[in-house]
Amino acid sequence: MDEEQQSRRLDSGALKALAHPLRVRIFDLLSAHGPQTASSLASMLGETSGSTSYHLRTLSAHDLIHEVEGRGTARERWWELPQGRIDIPGPNQSMSPANRAAAQIVSSEFFRLRHETLMAYVNRSDTDVPEGWKDAGLIATTLLEMTPAQMGDLKDELMAVIDGAVERYRGQTGPDVRRVSMRTELFDLVTSGPVLPDAVDADVEES
What we know:
Layout: H1 3-6, E1 7-9, H2 12-18, H3 21-33, E2 36-37, H4 38-45, H5 49-61, E3 66-72, E4 77-80, E5 85-87, H6 97-123, E6 139-142, H7 148-169, E7 203-206
Helix pairs in contact: 2-6, 3-6, 4-5
């Protein structure tokens, strides 16, 4: 797969098409659970299949999703995300007001769903987790002192690890295989100023 296929930055039309809370949720469910039909998505979302069908067609028109080849019928179509990474631009001042508003809707809804998924993981009961999965996850926050160049290098290293894992485990099936959410966060704190020589390291880890 070449670089263009691996990563796609959403253009203005695709960004606006995605800028609807229900479409973001559909996109997120297809990412988390794999191919779905309008009916299965309607059941997950508490919507009608007519509503989910409409939003699926809108997403498809901008190549954000596509039909699963060789699966489904004229009445019941299966939909999935294209392979590769989709880069959703965050709102910034160089965008037009309409694009900035669309980016804000998409970003806000994705981060809301991300937090919702994380809290569901944190608050789940041990009785709901199969043996072997109880201590497999990791939630960690580490504070570092870095320059912009060092942070860029670390970002590249982390993306190499992520891309390697994606290639290594893509398409796995089996009784012990579950969908896993892998999250990497690396950002400078808004209130952070220059690091003083006597700064104290802070490391918080939860598992």
